[in-house]
Structures are given as structure tokens and as C-alpha cells.
Amino acid sequence: MTYSVKITNEELYNEKVVDVDLDFHKGGMNGDVAIEVVGEGERCFTGEHGANDYEEEYGFVIVAE
Fold first, then answer.
1. 30 by DSSP, 3-state: which?
2. Ramachandran assignment for 28, one of left (phi > 0), alpha (psi -120 to 50 degrees), beta (any other)
3. Domain range summary for the chain, segments of one domain joined by +
4. In the chain, what is the greatest distance between 2 CA atoms, to the nearest angstrom?
């Protein structure tokens, strides 16, 4: 299974996000999410991730394909 980013709030995403790197291990959304934030650099999140964890703050959801 592969995972990707789906932008749900284009204005918020474009204002805050430069890049998103998803590095999930087999078996689900467990691994690392690195978000390069405008003016702040990279923020890394490790562990189990929900599909909607980043929607409110960054304007995207994680989609399993």
C-alpha cells in the first residue's frame, strides 16, 4: 500500500507547507512524517498517524492508495 497527500485546504497548505515526506512502514500509517514549514524549516512526527491528523493545522490529509 502506498500513501500520498491530498490537499483539503489549498490556501492553508500553500501558506504553511513547502513539502511533505511520508515514510511509512508496511502494515499501516506507522513511521515518519516530515513537513517542511514555511519560515520554520522541517518538523518531524514519528509514530502512528491518523489520516486527518494534519488537516486542521496544515490543510492536508493522508490518503492510502
1. strand
2. left
3. 3-64
4. 34
Please, what sign has the CA dihedral across residues 42, 47, 52, 53? Answer: negative
What grid cell was written down for 59? 490543510
| Strands 41-48 vs 17-24: parallel, antiparallel or unpaired | unpaired
* Cβ proximity of 52 and 64 under 8 Å: no
Q: What's the pTM? A: 0.90
d(CA 6, CA 2): 13
pLDDT at 24: 84
* Grid cell of 56 as nine digits: 486542521
What is the separation of C-alpha 23 from the centre of its chain, rounded to a whole number of angstroms? 10
